[in-house]
Amino acid sequence: xxxxxxxxxxxxxxxxxxxxxxxxxxxxxxxxxxxxxxxxxxxxxxxxxxxxxxxxxxxxxxxxxxxxxxxxxxxxxxxxxxxxxxxxxxxxxxxxxxxxxxxxxxxxxxxxxxxxxxxxxxxxxxxxxxxxxxxxxxxxxxxxxxxxxxxxxxxxxxxxxxxxxxxxxxxxxxxxxxxxxxxxxxxxxxxxxxxxxxxxxxxxxxxxxxxxxxxxxxxxxxxxxxxxxxxxxxxxxxxxxxxxxxxxxxxxxxxxxxxxxxxxxxxxxxxxxxxxxxxxxxxxxxxxxxxxxxxxxxxxxxxxxxxxxxxxxxxxxxxxxxxxxxxxxxxxxxxxxxxxxxxxxxxxxxxxxxxxxxxxxxxxxxxxxxxxxxxxxxxxxxxxxxxxxxxxxxxxxxxxxxxxxxxxxxxxxxxxxxxxxxxxxxxxxxxxxxxxxxxxxxx
Length: 443
Prior knowledge:
By secondary structure, the chain is α+β, with helices and mostly antiparallel strands. About 40% of the residues lie in helices and about 15% in strands. Strand 3, helix 3 and strand 4 form a beta-alpha-beta unit. The longest helix is centred in the first third of the chain and has 16 residues. The two termini are about 45 Å apart.
């Protein structure tokens, strides 16, 4: 193997040496040149958790990578399921000594993987042409993939969130413009709930839909990483967290069971691409670019042109957002970690801005670094869809942060979900909920 800045360069082996070796192999073993060429190609395995249309998008990415990197072949496969099932399968393959070379992870387990040694740090590859890689990323992209000062994960896309609003629902409720303050959002949303004969058919806004709960609103309250100097979670004594949970509690007047039932029914439509907002059953929703780029065109094309997006109007100066993403990692036991990193950096758009800029709009993705957004294809997408203007500014806002990676982050996130649901059902007070989050997150 020849390494230069962590990059595997099979095509840079000396031409004379290669020719002599190939000739000797052909002469001694009767091999054809095709066999010799095949022997020089490294195969890496990429495993993701995507399905449906996104898999077709990944196929295009793999084809382009192989076209521009003839020394590396990529096979791809997918595992789907819950956090526990997909994580269990990955850890099982690592324990068996047969892991994929690259795995795309979006569950809150990166800190646990890093702490347990289940994934490899990438710092050794940040040399040569990759020496400026971390500066190339959004700062929040680096933060979201770093554990104890080492880079363990690189996003192929980042999640940026903003507030979608349905223009028709707002107009029907007599609302002339989208909200600019949290109080205005609450007042506007209250006008949009439709409950007839005890049955819910439309809602305004609810802080526990589309997989969102307490965590996703933390950046707008300055409460994403409430930790002590000793590294312990301390949401109970975090002013922003207290304000946020008190706000969530104001929604307990709405029928929680009916909201979740309506959401579950809507989610079965159009292959899972429909949520309450896409189905025109909610006036507002906190979501990312994929809502307008993928979900609406697939599940409800009639909604196109009839929605808008504004920064979420939280108490923290905006536009800020929760810095999360679809992170690629190198599992322990990878057969070709250097080539895996080369593939991961390429997927992120590093030295690949033009192609990535043509792919990200299809997925409704925010790239790992700002240079991709400046490429012509991405700029064209932005100019053609004015609603996207609320997403990119949030990526460089100082209030945009990623949840700190820790060995117990999955317990923390699960506790936040449970606490949110319990507050909305009046099973916990806001104070009890925050105490519960700390107990579970620090266990």
